[in-house]
Amino acid sequence: MVLSVTRYKPPKINQIIHRKRLTNLFEMRKGKRLILLHGKPGGGKSTLVADYLKTYGKQALWFNLDIDDSDPFLFLKRLLVGIINQKEEYKKYLNEVESTRPGESPDHLFDILISCVELEKDRHYSIVLDNFEIAEGSQRIQEPINYLIEAIPDNVDLFILSRTYPHLAIHKFRSDKKLLEINDNNLAFTTLEVNELFNRVYAISLSPELADNIREVCGGWAIALGLLSEALQNKSEEDRNQFIDKLLQTESFPAIDKYFAEEIFGKLELEERELFARLAVFNQITPDLIKKISGYEEFDILHVLEQRNLFLEIQDQEKKVYSFHRLFSKFLSTQFRNLPDIEKISIHKLAAEFYLERGEVGKAFDHLILGKDYPGAENIFLRDADELMKQGQYNTLRRMVETFPADIRKMRPLLLYYHAITTNLIHPVTTRKILFSLISYFRETEDWNREAKIYSVFLTNFLFYQENRETVTNIINTASVFLAKAERYLDPENKEVLKALIPLGKWWIMPDSDEAIEMVLTSEETSLRFNNEEGLLFSRIVLSRMYLDRGEFQDSKNILITAERRLNKSGATQQYEALLRFYLGDTFFYIGDLSYAIQQVRKGLETPYQGFAFRPYLELNHALYTLYAENTDEAELIIESISGREIGGNLMLRYYCIYLLQMLLAYRKGNRRRAHYYCKRLMQPENELLLMTDYPYSYLALGEVNLFIEEYDAASTILKTMLEQAPVGMYPYPNATAFGILGLVYSRRGEKKEARKYFQQMIEILKSKTYRNLDICDPDLLRDIARQSKSPVFSEFLRLKEGLKEVQSTTEPLLEFHTFGEFRVFVNGKEIPGPVITRQKKVIDLLKILIVHRDKGILKERVCDTFWREYSPKSSRDNLNTIICRLRKLLGREKEYIATDADSIRLKEGTYTIDIDKYTEYIRYGEIAEKKGDVNAALNFYRKASYLYSDDFMAKDLYYDDIHDERERLKNGYKHFMFKIAKMGLDTGNFLYTIEGAKKLISKDPICESAHRLLMIASAISGNRSEIPRIFNTLNEKLLCDYDIQADPKTVDLKNRLLSGDTPEPSMWQDEILI
Questions:
Q1: Residue 300: predicted pLDDT
Q2: How many angstroms from the chain centroid is the CA of residue 529?
Q3: Which helix (H) or strand (E) holds 856?
Q4: Residue (of 471, 563, 473, 548) closest to 517 by Cα position
Q5: Is 215 exposed, middle or buried (0-12, 13-18, 19+ CB in 10 A)?
Q6: What is the signed CA dihedral for 345, 347, 351, 357, rounded to 10 degrees?
Q7: pLDDT digits (tens, 9 = 90+) for 663-719
Q8: For the chain, first and last CA: distance in Å?
Q9: In the chain, at which end, N or C, are there fewer CB atoms within 10 A of the end residue's CB?
């Protein structure tokens, strides 16, 4: 019998890691003679066993089964030939085996097999049956295998390697605890094994987090990890990072798709391939779903697929719910996209029917949309829309309605209505127009309830955006007329909600009314009665606003914190979070906790809504709070990033943007002329309406700035006018502030008696209301009031406590780190000499890692693992304590710069400055300006950031992953905004900026073709076309040298066009992207 040698060869085991976690299971199995490994193709079964046998020097026969081995006679005969040919003493049996003929009983062959094995009874021997699934489908093969399992002596280990779970008589081995079973879950690589594979075998360094992400996407699947490693091996570090980023985003890469196409999908039957493609759009697969989609009434392919382990993963064993492996699912999605459109629509239609039959309306809706059955989808949508709206599930509603194409929405009034309702707080101007236009439609169709909802939305919308009273009055009047006419036709909830909101609007018009709080409480009661989450939340925010206006800050805080808990718990009406943060910010601002006020507006600015019209309100408060918090430079950056925006006709935005913030910024920076100008402008009669939008606080700002520019009469007049118009009973906080400023005015005039009178009135209010703050922008002015009034109440002012700390901190040693390029450290303005840094390498390495982890600190255990991985835990901790002590000594003991606890270590907040933070700040403000369409401001910020980036982050530190990862993050960001500078330079006509940005980008990425193209265009615009051949040739030579390729045809075409005299035009650069 002539057999291929490959039948008896184990797989090659080059470029693998030794998986001790699993091979230890083989070594420590304690009498378990049957070892079953079953799992998906490419799971590493064969490699694992081959590595184990080789590593531990095991004598073994490796037998690769093929389809002919389903014949028990041939199987046994071939198995025996393999065993006999291993040893000379076995060859006496060869003639007997060769002489046997098909049809004879296999018992004689079994006897020979046992005889051969018994010759090895003094030593262990292994038989490996690989690719067992090929023959396992035959019932005939099961008998000899079962016999073999039962008959093999104790010194023989039988390994069965199969993609499927074999139907063999192994239950006895399991019950006797003689079976070791390893499945897909065991075979999956752990994060540590992924890191080891990439690092040791392919010399690719991964952070633990990145290794874990790769493991998760690949499911720990061996072949996927191997193919990915090979794909990354010859790439540059930058290309490698981009490749991994794309993998994590798309859950796919070319090599694994090719594997699926050739090794899995291409080997399926046509019927199976078609079914797999049809199932690609489903996250969960059940037998009933397959039956519906396949068209076969008794199509039991799921059982077959499960048995063959074709990348089906069990989600729920009891309910028989499955899903595809993530990588395979993405591959199948491509197969689905390649189906004819008519077939895809048919599949979605069948799926919609399937889910509707089972009451899974959400899934049915999705498939109706994908199948372009928009009327059917609209019917489902309308069935639940009002209930979702009642529950405040606006995000869910908006996502559903936005799945309809925009042209379909425009033609369907109800879809238009729900879309406008759910986005009215995000895009108020456009949605108001749409809702106004729908009123006539609902009136004609006598849809009174939806018309009532529109009026309710108008009232909340106009109050949300703090519109002027005239506008609100018109809405109230119109809504009142409608309610009088249609009340009897309305559902109870719509009627009661509108009846409660109209008084709320009247409160807006008459905030001083004694009935105001009662109106709000009536609205709250109505909302509770009808379980209206939106109405309840809005009522409480309005109530908190009323308390703010009346100076009852603690009451406002308590209400808002309760509302915040309710908002977080319900998850509904998330659009109101921005408004909640706005008023929480104001509350803490008035209380005097500026850091918490700033935190609140920053949380509000994290809204996920694109183009949210409420953002300017939060940004303006962010700027205002920052001015008060003695951070003038940051406030200036914020104001600069929002200046020049389109503010429309909103008076409050106009007042803040154009006048107040500019005036206060000039005041805080000591620019008397500029402060005086804006002060005069605000005091002109035509701006009286602007002042009233923030009354009476606008008067306080004018009084404080007039005091600064020494216009004492003007300051006195403004403040006294405010005191006359705003009685202390209604405005205690502004009155206390006004009395404090007036005290200073008269003190500086030398009228001490009058000054004491005003200070005393201020103190009485502070004590009676337990205020611990005044609405004073300049903290030095607040200190002056505290000093001159001599009241002990100021000792409890949080702002003064913070201010004292900040004053002290500027006189004590302060650390300064320069991290771009050469690492430099300054203590109290004096640089630590380079030789000192060089001599204390481990100490400086710790400092550098603390800088990387400056936000949250780093676990001591992780530092020990980084520096002293081979040491015992005690030795590592001792070493770390020594290094921390030496670092403290190096930085100086005048101030504590390092904070430690039992588990972690960090740089102490507020004791250092670092160039990265300023760099990041410039980029952030550049991005803000860019989003607002202010390209010139964005360019300015990006260029400021580029000047700080003198070289890569800690450019000479090559050995620590943490520093490397931070360097790559910063470098990628740098290249990104250099590209922006280059493009924006062309957009704005500043071609020199383009040359600057493109050259800096090319210095970091010499083969970036888009940067070279932008540089060629800028050279042509600047009249320097002679540079174009040099730019092109430099790129082309680099590509040929490094990759043996030439420049992209797009680059060649651009060069030729520019050299032929074509005038550069926007179409040449507008589509450029950074790859």
A1: 60
A2: 38
A3: none
A4: 548
A5: buried
A6: 90
A7: 999 999 889 999 999 999 888 888 888 788 788 999 999 999 999 999 999 999 999
A8: 59
A9: C
β strands within 985-1072, DSSP E: none
CA distance 215 to 187: 12
Q: In sequence order, what DSSP letters do the residues of 737-760 get, joined into one string?
A: HHHHHHHHHHHHTT-HHHHHHHHH
156: buried, middle or exposed (CB in 10 Å: 19+, 13-18, 0-12)? buried
Sequence-distant (≥ 6) Cβ neighbours of residue 568 within 8 angstroms: none
CA atoms within 13 A on the CB side of 941: 26
d(CA 661, CA 619): 11
In 551-614, where does DSSP find H-type helix?
553-570, 577-591, 594-604
Distance CA 847, CA 1018 (A): 43
Count of residues in the chain: 1075
**pLDDT at residue 762, rounded to an integer:** 96
- For residue range 481-506, list pLDDT tens digits in order: 999 999 999 999 888 888 888 877 77
Those residues whose C-beta lies under 8 Å from the C-beta of residue 252, and which sit 6 or more positions away, are: 327, 330, 331
Task: Read off the amino acid at residue 32.
Answer: K
The DSSP result for 6-73, as a single string, is: GGG-PPP--S----HHHHHHHHT-SS--EEEEE-STTSSHHHHHHHHHHHTT--EEEEE--GGGGSHH
Q: pLDDT value at position 266?
A: 86
Distance, in Å, from the CA atom of 67 to the CA atom of 136, rounded to the nearest integer, reads: 9
pLDDT of residue 2: 42
- The stretch 905-909 carries a mean pLDDT of 86
Contact 591, 547 (CB under 8 A): no
| Torsional class of 203: left (φ above 0), alpha (ψ -120 to 50), beta (otherwise) | left
**CA 794/CA 805 separation, integer angstroms:** 15
Task: Report the 10 Å Cβ neighbour count for 561.
Answer: 14
Query: Strand pairing of 34-38 and 830-831?
Result: unpaired
Position 713, amino acid: D
Is residue 35 a contact partner of residue 67, using CB atoms and an 8 Å limit? no
Which two tokens mark 830?
């004096």
For 179, the 3-state DSSP assignment is: strand
Q: Using DSSP bridges, classify how beta strands 912-914 and 815-818 pair: parallel, antiparallel or unpaired.
A: parallel
What are 884's two structure tokens?
């921390």
Per-residue tokens: 19: 């998986």
Pair 820, 915: CB distance under 8 Å: yes
Residue-wise pLDDT tens digits, 1011-1052: 999 999 988 887 788 889 999 999 988 888 877 788 888 999
Residue entry with tokens 């238009």: 416
* DSSP per-residue string spanning 786-855: HHHHT-GGGGG-HHHHHHHHHHHHHHS--EEEE-BSS-EEEETTEEPPHHHHHHTHHHHHHHHHHHHTTT
Question: Residue 530 and residue 978: Cα distance in Å, rounded?
Answer: 55
C-alpha closest to that of 421 among 544, 629, 575: 575
Q: How many CB atoms lie within 10 A of CB 990?
A: 19
Q: Are 906 and 858 in contact (CB under 8 A)?
A: yes
Domains plus CATH for the chain?
5-187 (3.40.50.300), 191-250 (no CATH), 649-800 (1.25.40.10), 812-910 (1.10.10.10), 919-1068 (1.25.40.10)
Between 822 and 51, the more confident residue is 51
* Secondary structure (3-state) at 163: coil
Helix extents (H) in 358-404: 361-370, 374-390, 394-401
Query: Model confidence over 326-381: pLDDT tens digits?
Result: 899 899 999 999 999 999 999 999 999 999 998 888 889 999 999 999 999 999 99
Q: Do strands 824-827 and 815-818 pair parallel, antiparallel, or not at all (unpaired)?
A: antiparallel
Q: At what angle do helices 991-1004 and 961-988 cross, to 10 degrees?
A: 160
Over pLDDT 90: what percentage of the chain? 28
